[in-house]
Amino acid sequence: MDINRVHPELRKATASFPKLPVGSAFGRALTRLLLPLLLPRAKAPAGVSITWQEAPSGQKLRVYKPGGSNQKAALLYIHGGGMMIGAAKMDDVLLAGLAADLGILVVSPEYRLAPENPYPSAIDDCNEAWHWMLNNAANLEIDTKRIAIGGESAGGGLAAGSVLRIHDEGGTQPIAQWLFCPMLDDRTALDRKLDEVNHFIWDNKLNLAGWTSYLGAQLGADDVSAYAAPARRKDLRGLPKAWIGVGDIELFYEEDRSYAEGLKAAGVACELDVVAGGPHAFEGLDPKAQVSIDYASRARAWLKKALAA
Asked: From residue 33, how far is each of 22, 62, 111 by CA, in Å?
């Protein structure tokens, strides 16, 4: 892909982003080892605590809690990493900031990674985190009628899949879904023509590695669960309102746009925020670019309004 297709404010950061060596076991191990060292150290804003909690299974949950004793809205936020890498701590800056600015409690699960833990491990962990929030609502001081589920990339796909699973389970439902460039459709990885495009940040070869790690031999099969690949879902009626943000030059643009259209056709309120020249996860790639600041501001404003309902 020609770098000139990238938004001018994002070109420098995009061009300097290294190719992730996650296609091999050694590359994944190295990336997982180095990632914590590359992340900026987040200092919690005044009045916000960042703690680790533990779910019944032993899964670690990173909790961002603002001050005050009133019942709060909350967000279950799921980190990205193509199902193979990533950690809850990588979103400290974003999530501590959300907790402070919106006065909400945020929980981020340290879900199990593929290929060591294939489907349904990650979605099971996200589901456990959801029920942990409900079961501990009194201690967490949250209003269970005002919990949104969100995430980015693979985390956005897990968020959308979690919303579907919770809908099918019945009971308390999330009030909104907040999805940044979500990874929704395993069938995209099987389109070899997309390899030639060579998308920035996350290309289709990496996508194939991610989906293969998660689904194994099930990749592309007719009976792949919509909890794993939400784009497989035919009936989207009754789901909570959604915000989907994506750049128009990234690999997931078409599947994200299609999912947004499907939600709208099913009567679900959905706002699709498309950023011209935005590569994958660009707002985290260069958060100081004005285009990233504006995009993040729109996303946050939408979430604030959704949680106030």
From this structure: 12, 19, 16
